[in-house]
Specification:
This protein is α+β, with helices and mostly antiparallel strands. The chain has 3 helices and 6 strands, in the order βββααβββα. 15% of the residues are buried.
Length: 78
């Protein structure tokens, strides 16, 4: 199954490692450092995002809230 994460991007549900909200990422120095090290893998507009979807191969900046993305993934797996 796929999850639409915004900006016409679909991600397979089994590839998603985690979904983080913007506030968590911006308040954590560890998260900031991780994103800086992974710049080659980033996809999407990093200036206006509400959440980050991390997969094995790519990090996506999503304009959709993390709670909404979580609901979408849960609906697909039930």
């Amino acid at each position: 199954m796929y999850v639409h994460i915004g900006e016409n991007i679909l991600v397979r549900t089994f590839e998603i490692i985690t979904i983080l909200d913007r506030q968590t990422v911006e308040s954590s120095p560890i998260s900031k450092e991780f994103l800086e090290q992974q710049k080659a893998m980033i996809n999407g507009n990093s200036s206006s995002y509400k959440s980050i979807v991390i997969t094995k191969d790519t990090i996506y900046f999503s304009p959709i809230a993390s709670n909404t993305l979580k609901k979408r993934t849960v609906q697909l797996t039930v």
